[in-house]
Amino acid sequence: MSSRKFRIGTRKSELAMAQAEEVTSTLKLHFPDMIFEIVPATTTGDRRRDELDLNVQDKKQWIIELEQLLSNNEIDIAVHSAKDVPLQLQHDTRVTSILKRERAEDILVLNSTSLEIDTDANTVDLNLALPNLALSNLRPGARIGTSSNRRRSELLRIRPDLEIVPCRGNVPTRIKKLEHEQLDGIVIALAGINRLNIKPTTSIILDQNLMMPSSTQGTLIGQYRSDDKLAIELLSKLIDKNTQIEFEAERACIDILGADCHTAIGVRAILKEEVLKIAARILSKDGQEFVEAEIQGNKEESGNLGKELGEVLIAKGALRLV
Questions:
Q1: What H or E segment, with its residue span, contains residue 246?
Q2: Burial class of 203 by CB neighbour count within 10 A (0 to 12, 13 to 18, 19+)
Q3: Distance between CA 22 and CA 97 in Å, rounded?
Q4: Domains of the chain (ranges plus CATH)?
Q5: Single pTM value for the model
Q6: What is the pLDDT of residue 127?
Q7: How many CB atoms lie within 10 A of CB 117?
């Protein structure tokens, strides 16, 4: 094995650093004699995070500096949250999913006074039909924080009376805004909460049928130079086969639709044994119009299934919502 130091690039946010540390720890288990170094970088997206300019949502702005470091041979891989990575990559790089996927759902973190039902002051993992009970019991006109077009549309689909308030920043910052900006709740990715080991006082995990997750939410990816044999060898030890199958299917669906970070779309592939089920929902800005579909097939056809689902959505008129 090479004696060179292996450099792992990441953004500087608390969540990004935690993810890079998890990847590094796992690599050390497989390659105990190698030296690993985490190289933090500030991206354009980080610098512009609090701006109201919606262009900051361009996914490329969250990774472009890391891609430049890769191309300049200043890092060997970059670790990203997969949902932050656009389909179009730096020409000399590739990506693969790494590690096992975290839970893909969104979580509604609440002020304790926001619900008109009793809670036990703990996270409530509600199944199938019950999450709507929590949302339906928010006070009329409740203020819910999110800057995600998908979450905004899904919330308004269920509760058109809600006031959706822009809520930017990293995960701990958004949780602080819950009280500082007098919000009734915020919707964020459960994966980030789990990876940071945050335990909200009152929160509800939203079922995926109710709040369709973002494509590849909860998945980490490693980006590497396409000709770097060592990086390819190391990353191969981190690939979880089931996660990779779901990753490929969800990205393929987004690709065929031409959806981007401004599109209110959720996609979720779930692999059980040999069968891959993939569902998607694309919505209008106000959530009152949406197109959804679900298909299933053999796991070996993950990319084709994602493409097929996209084509089904297109046949139903989804492109008018992209």
A1: helix 241-257
A2: buried
A3: 14
A4: 1-99+219-239 (3.40.190.10), 106-206 (3.40.190.10), 241-322 (3.30.160.40)
A5: 0.90
A6: 37
A7: 9
